[in-house]
Structure formats: C-alpha cells, structure tokens
Design goal:
The protein is an alpha+beta fold. Helices cover about 30% and strands about 20% of the residues. The protein has a five-stranded mixed beta sheet, with helices on both faces. The chain has a five-stranded mixed beta sheet with strand order 16-15-17-13-18, with helices on one face.
Length: about 550
C-alpha cells in the first residue's frame, strides 16, 4: 500500500505538502486521525476510508447530510416490485467523471458504470474481481447474499433482481463500499496493463476529486466545478470551498491544538479530556450528538480459554466499566448492555450491564478450571474513535482490573491498518474493536459482525457462532414489518447478552470542535463524513 501510494504521488509530480502553502480562505483544512486503509472503499469497512470516499465517489442512494433519511443520488428515483424482489433505478443524467493526468473521460456516467461496479464485486469472472484485495467485505455480507443479478435496461436504467427480500437494501446502497466506479477508466487501465490504478488513483463523480495522497501525512482534494449539483442548485451537496485538505494527525491533543491555532478548522475524533477547553475556546464551536455505535472487547472464542462462557462472564464481572467511562469517555458515555444502541430502533432497554464484581469473577474462573487465573494478550485499539476515545488507557484499566482476579494481560497494539488486518485474520486472543452504523437500520453491524457466517469471513472478531442468533438476524432481514423485525432483533440481543458474545463498553457521544469561521458543517452519523455543503466565512 505505502509503496503504491508513494508511486501515485510521484506520478502526479508532487513533492511537497507543506500546510502553510496550501491553507487559504478557499481551503477547508481538516485534522484527520489516520491514513485510510484503502482509497477504493469497496475493499474497506473503516471510517478512515469512508471519509475519503465520501468526497470523491457517489452511490445510487445517499443518506441526507447530518440526518437519517435516504435520498436520491446517482439514482434519481426507483421502483420496487410488489414481491420486493426487483428494484429498478432511473439514473441521473449529466453527471461527469473526474479526470486525471492519466485519464480523460470521453462520456458521462451511465448504466455501464453501475453494472461494472456491481459485477466487479459480484462476478468472479469479472477481469477486475481479483484486482486489489479481492475482498469486498461490505458487499459480500450485506448485499451479495440476496443479489441474483444486475442488468442494464438502457443507458439510464438499471435493474437489481434479488433472490429474497432485503429490507434495508436502499440504505445499504448509500454506504461508501457501494460507490460507483468508472467502467471506461477501468477498461483504459486494463488495456494499459495497470488495472490496479483505479484503486490507487481514484476517479469518481463526487463534489471533490483527489489531487494527491501522501500516506500518514496529507490528502488533498480539489472542488469539481462542473459537478451536477451546480446545475440543479443543490447547495447542500455542492463543494463550497476550492480545496479540501486532510492533515493526518494521529494525536488527538495535537489535532485540537491545531484547531486552536488555526492550522486546522475541524478536528475529527477529539480527546474527551479536551472537552472543557473546547467549551471555553472563543474561536471554536463544539458540536455534539448521539451516534449509533458499538464498542467492545472481542474474546476470540476459537482460542482457549475464551470458548468457555464462564471465562468470558468472569472477565465481564471483573471489568469496571463505570471506571472506564469516567476515565476514558470523561463521563460522556453510558454503560452498554444491548448490542443495538439506544439511537436505533429495536434497542433492548431491559438488558443491563453485569456489575463490577471481582469475587463473582474469581468464582466463575475457578469453576472453569482457572482458580489462579491465566495469561493472555490484550489488544488496544491504536486510533481515537468516538466509540473508543483512548484505547491504550482503557486497556491499562482493564489490565489492572483483571490482575485482581489473577489474569495477567499483556497489552499489545499495531498500526491501524495492520491492527485491522490481523484482527480480521483472528490473530488476537482478546481484542478491542468497535463500529458505527453506516446506515439507519439495526441489521448492518449485527449481520456483518455477529453471525456464524461472519466467523467464516473474519468480520466476526469474537468468532461467536450462535445459530439461533444468526437465524434471527437472517429472518429479520427478509421481512418488512418493523414490529416483527424488532422482536427478532430483541431476541438476538438477549442471546448476545446471555452468551457474553462480547463485552460492550459504552454508548458514546460524538464531539467535533469546529472553528467559528466554518459554516454549515454537520456531524454525519452514518458512513463517511462529507465536507461538501460546508463553507468558510470571509
């Protein structure tokens, strides 16, 4: 990845990325937390990649900026057959593709691009199926299980045919991994013998085009003056600054310091410990809101002793969650017991966290055959997330808690991309992970992260397989009655809780410090954070 990224930057003739040279009244500078694991979001499940893709690419549908309504995007409209098995999309006309030094499009967006983008992920015979990682996690888990075919009806009409109803399909199509890529660009790169370039030098239809990327340093975007939103007068989805710049700044305290000094205008994922200073900083507005999130410890149940429920339950009783929320979340979260957060429908409010009870934990460990505890390795998440503001600090508190019952945990971590890769491969014994929902339906995270099928793909980090729970999720995904779906999701949450599928931390609040000259920024709770529709007061 890093080698190819450097190659891309050099191809564009870029040699320096000094912030003072790029910041201007027409530039929106965002302090971001990490490099994206992929520039093509089809391969990713991470917000770092989604944040980049949200600017460059577009999808058939979208979630309104800062809200939860599904709205048209590259598809202007759609119809659904009575049996919910056929979706017919009418595509938007007049949508232009970005250009680069190696590719100049000869046509506008059309149905061929939609078919190509889906078939790359769906058809093993597509010449692009194995290009790149070849691992289309989101598509494979959310869309593919119900997809029968995709068909071009005419240049501006495509038809998706399903094998079974997929209740949240329109929402799922709004998420970054379902971005539409250029079929013409793909064909040109294939002919040139460089098919991988479509993933490393992205060409999209979004409000911003990618100008350059230097791993762990900076990502630069340029506004697209001919973007379709100009013609229809959709200011909310229009690039309102000339330049958008992500300055990759892993340290949360440094991100806020840069906002204070004016080096950045927005800081992603601030440190909760800086909240008092943010609230009193005269140059900053502090935005906040509830997010749909899930943060947890995944006990790898394919490794001893974590396949034993008594061990998992003992560690749950041995972990002082309230102390973690005070120290790590700075009191801004609430202890979580239900796998669906309170901000989404079907949340099971009757479930309660296990209380901190070291004596009960010791008894359970002894019953499981570990009266003197055991040794393990505890992975700490290396980046700041709204669902986990300080992974290292949380790991230290857990380490101390577990030591009181004889469990010696060694803390380990990796660079974020490596952490994700190793976690998906199941190398961890106990790992800290988390998710935020990318669309407003409870199915997504549960289906991708907590099913028996997810064990096979690696998305289920706990390797927890409860067939009744998996069956409940599968059934809920095929019916449209929300009341009936709620019953199934609640049953799933009961099984999750009873079986200690994972140890949940907190339902968190999201915070974003934004300099006061920034106008109309909205915290976006689903998928990547868009920076179109945002302007700077002169």
């Amino acid at each position: 990845m890093s080698v190819r990224a450097r190659s891309f930057a050099l191809t564009l003739g870029l040699s320096a990325f000094l912030l003072p040279a790029v910041a201007s009244a027409q530039a929106l500078v965002v302090c971001s937390e990490a490099s994206p694991d992929f520039l093509n979001p089809q391969f990713s499940s991470q917000n770092t990649a989604y944040d980049v893709a949200a600017q460059i690419y577009e999808r058939l549908t979208a979630t309104e900026r800062g809200g939860s309504q599904i709205i048209p995007s590259l598809a202007e409209s759609w119809t659904i057959s009575d049996d919910a098995l056929t979706y017919t999309f009418k595509l938007r006309k007049g949508v232009k593709w970005h250009a680069s030094k190696t590719f100049t499009p000869t046509r506008e967006f059309n149905a061929d691009d939609v078919v190509f983008s889906f078939e790359r992920m769906f058809d093993a015979n597509s010449p692009y199926n194995k290009v790149g990682s070849g691992n289309y996690q989101f598509f494979s888990e959310i869309v593919k299980p119900s997809l029968k075919s995709i068909e071009k009806v005419d240049d501006y009409t495509v038809k998706l045919t399903l094998t079974k109803p997929n209740a949240p399909l329109l929402s799922a199509l709004s998420v970054e991994p379902m971005s539409i890529l250029s079929a013409e660009y793909a064909a040109a790169m294939l002919k040139a013998g460089t098919p991988e370039q479509i993933d490393f030098a992205p060409i999209g239809t979004g409000p911003f085009s990618l100008l350059s990327y230097q791993k762990d340093a900076i990502i630069r975007f340029k506004a697209v003056p001919e973007h379709w939103t100009k013609a229809v007068g959709n200011r909310d989805r229009m690039a309102l600054v000339n330049d958008l710049i992500f300055v990759i700044t892993p340290d949360a305290a440094v991100r806020f310091a840069k906002v204070r000094s004016g080096e950045c205008q927005i800081a992603r994922y601030p440190n909760p410990g800086d909240l008092p200073a943010m609230k009193t900083e005269p140059t900053v507005n502090l935005l906040q809101g509830s997010i749909a999130d899930q943060s947890f410890l995944a006990f790898n149940q394919q490794k001893k002793p974590f396949g034993d429920k008594r061990v998992r339950e003992a560690l749950a009783y041995a972990t002082n969650i309230a102390a973690i929320i005070d120290a790590v979340y700075q009191g801004t979260g609430n202890p979580a017991a239900a796998a669906v957060p309170p901000s989404l429908w079907s949340h099971h409010a009757d479930l309660k966290p296990r209380p901190y009870d070291p004596e009960k934990a010791k008894a359970l460990l002894a019953e499981a055959g570990y009266p003197n505890g055991f040794e393990t390795v505890l992975w700490a998440i290396p980046v700041v997330r709204a669902y986990m503001p300080n992974g290292r600090r949380a790991a230290e508190l857990i380490q101390a808690d577990w030591a009181r019952i004889g469990v010696k945990a060694t803390i380990q971590t990796f660079e974020w991309g490596e952490y994700l890769k190793r976690g998906r491969a199941g190398e961890h014994e106990v790992g800290m992970f988390g998710y935020t929902w990318d669309y407003p339906d409870p199915s997504q995270i549960l289906l991708s992260g907590w099913t028996c099928e997810g064990v096979k793909t690696g998305a289920n980090r706990a390797r927890w397989c409860n067939q009744e729970a998996s069956d409940a999720l599968a059934k809920a995904n095929t019916i449209t009655d929300q009341g009936e779906r709620t019953k199934l999701y609640k049953r799933f949450q009961e099984l999750f809780h009873e079986d200690v599928a994972g140890l949940l931390f907190a339902n968190a609040q999201a915070f974003t410090p934004v300099r006061k000259e920034v106008k109309d920024y909205k915290i976006h709770f689903f998928g990547g954070q868009p920076f179109y529709g945002v302007s700077i007061a002169k």
